[in-house]
């Protein structure tokens, strides 16, 4: 969205990469074009805010930082008549074509926010309508899955896992594919209605088995990307959880596989922890998440620039869905970048959470 903001901005602006952009009304002044430092962002706070903030750089030129829907825009190369006049009259003369009032910048920013909010509402409505149309597909998928399970149940073996291992490879692939599709369709329900993450009564769930099943389902997809996926740890606890916990496992593992380096490994670890809680970590090797992005990764439709470079696919909804499900279970997903290589920004990206046994999850 940042490129859209730059295109619609009537004032000159500067990108994080220190690129100067002309506005469609005001252009970059000579004082900024000749600046060798172009460290405009150093004068603006890194904390995301919904307010327009004013700064003055070392050359007595005004900067306005505007934050809209998690995206930041920095207007530069202007002379604010309300704040700069008493500081440098020479600048006022040299920037006579770039004089602005903070009130005008505020008005433009406010209208942009209203416009993007309206666009977001329209997208949200269209998304919900599309998801409602997926209901029939989900019903058909569930029917295929139940029939495949019925076939598996007749195979030799004491446990379901044994029976699946004894099945024809094509049938095993079908089971995994349909199960994965059904899990992905469950994501659409949460997008349409976040409250559905807490639907049903919480029941005892073997968390290790949930994640182990999802690891098995992702084996083929991971192999296609030249990524290994392994399961570690041991857990016998069965804390209460909603059915949506399966979707949480899907999202975290899918995210790890999608953004892993070629030849990398995704390691899913589930262990029993103190007081009956279960500790879950999903670790992969890829671009580290840092800076402002750390505050935004769980926001709806947010994708880091590195994520966009690695793959064009992705809606920026995965980690948002994960956070919704985590909230329903009263847990918090933590992110940590370990063993960062400073030259490339590659790190071990670790998402983790602790799930304690709480049979009254659906009670506030």
Automatic annotation (TrEMBL):
Origin species: Candidatus Nitrobium versatile
Database matches in SUPFAM superfamilies: ATPase domain of HSP90 chaperone/DNA topoisomerase II/histidine kinase
Keyword Nucleotidyltransferase appears in the UniProt entry: no
Top EC class, one word: transferase
Known catalytic reactions: ATP + protein L-histidine = ADP + protein N-phospho-L-histidine
Annotated SMART domains: HATPase_c
Domain Histidine kinase, chain residue ranges per copy: 132-359
Superkingdom of origin: Bacteria
Entry EC number(s): 2.7.13.3
InterPro entries per record: HATPase_C_sf (IPR036890), HATPase_dom (IPR003594), His_kinase_dom (IPR005467), TCS_sensor_his_kinase (IPR050428)
GO biological process, one term: phosphorelay signal transduction system
MF-aspect GO terms: protein histidine kinase activity
Protein name per its UniProtKB record: histidine kinase
PROSITE patterns: HIS_KIN (PS50109)
Keyword DNA repair assigned: no
Cited Gene3D superfamilies: Histidine kinase-like ATPase, C-terminal domain (3.30.565.10)
């Amino acid at each position: 969205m940042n490129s859209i903001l730059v295109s619609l901005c009537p004032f000159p602006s500067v990108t994080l990469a220190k690129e100067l952009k002309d506005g469609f009304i005001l252009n970059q002044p000579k004082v900024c074009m000749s600046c060798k430092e172009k460290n405009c962002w150093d004068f603006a706070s890194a904390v995301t805010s919904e307010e327009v903030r004013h700064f003055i750089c070392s050359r007595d030129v005004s900067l306005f930082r505007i934050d809209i829907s998690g995206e930041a825009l920095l207007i530069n190369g202007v002379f604010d008549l309300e704040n700069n006049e008493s500081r440098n009259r020479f600048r006022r003369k040299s920037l006579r074509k770039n004089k602005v009032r903070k009130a005008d910048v505020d008005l433009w920013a406010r209208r942009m926010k209203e416009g993007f909010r309206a666009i977001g509402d329209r997208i949200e409505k269209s998304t919900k309508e599309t998801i409602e149309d997926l209901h029939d597909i989900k019903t058909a998928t569930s029917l295929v899955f139940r029939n495949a399970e019925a076939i598996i149940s007749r195979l030799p073996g004491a446990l379901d896992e044994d029976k699946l291992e004894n099945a024809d490879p094509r049938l095993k692939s079908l089971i995994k594919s349909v199960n994965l599709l059904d899990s992905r369709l469950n994501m659409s329900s949460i997008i349409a209605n976040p409250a559905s993450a807490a639907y049903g009564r919480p029941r005892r769930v073997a968390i290790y088995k949930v994640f182990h099943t999802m690891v098995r389902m992702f084996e083929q997809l991971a192999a296609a990307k030249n990524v290994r996926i392994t399961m570690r740890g041991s857990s016998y606890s069965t804390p209460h959880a909603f059915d949506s916990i399966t979707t949480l496992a899907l999202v975290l593992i899918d995210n790890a596989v999608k953004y892993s380096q070629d030849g990398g490994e995704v390691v899913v670890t589930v262990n029993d922890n103190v007081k009956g809680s279960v500790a879950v970590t999903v670790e992969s090797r890829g671009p580290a998440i840092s800076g402002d992005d750390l505050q935004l990764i769980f926001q709806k439709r947010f994708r880091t620039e590195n994520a966009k470079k690695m793959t064009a696919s992705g809606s920026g909804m995965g980690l948002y869905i994960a956070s919704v499900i985590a909230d329903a279970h009263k847990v918090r997903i933590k992110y940590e970048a370990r063993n960062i290589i400073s030259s490339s920004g590659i790190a071990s990206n670790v998402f983790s959470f602790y799930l304690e046994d709480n049979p009254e999850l659906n009670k506030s």
